[in-house]
Amino acid sequence: MKPLGEDVFNPLDKTNLAESVRDRLLRRSVVKLPPERFLGAGIYAIYYTGDFPAYRKISKYTPSDAKAIPIYVGKAVPAGSRKGGYGLGADPGDVLHRRLSEHASSIEEAGNLKLTDFKCRFLLVDDIWIPLGESLLIETFKPVWNLLVDGFGHHDQGKARRGQMKSAWDTLHPGRMWAEKVERPNVKSASDIAKEVVAYLEKDILVP
Q: Could you tell me the pTM of the whole model?
């Protein structure tokens, strides 16, 4: 008979597995964005330390501080995973490094951000656990670029994206050449989005 009020711990429960991936990432060193080239797939967290007014709530902490909140988290999976399979056993090449490098290029093109104000953590993860780890990171930190200011992770898809509405990220941080060709402006102005960011970050933010 188990002790009254005690739950039986299952190390293979998906929540426990996800937490182990998250916690391992948070023990990784903080490095520049993008880091030196490496091979592998996995998850990552990007931190902002600059003086853009709307992000003051999170930028006041150094990335190594226990209270630091990433501005964006994401994943990079082998090609087979993106096509609907698990990508198990597929050679990931440098997919995670390339994803971080793409993010660095987006930041460099933005007219009101500086790449030197960004740092990152990354963790190489076996294919099947990557989406689970990313989901828990988003649930834990609720990063502003994941949940409120959408569009940071978008790629140029040519004419297919031209008729769409400009993303909140490209409205708040204009400069990406391909995004400037998007025909429909966002229904919100940069000022409106910035005010929403401030209000969002003023709410209680969960930390691990």
A: 0.86
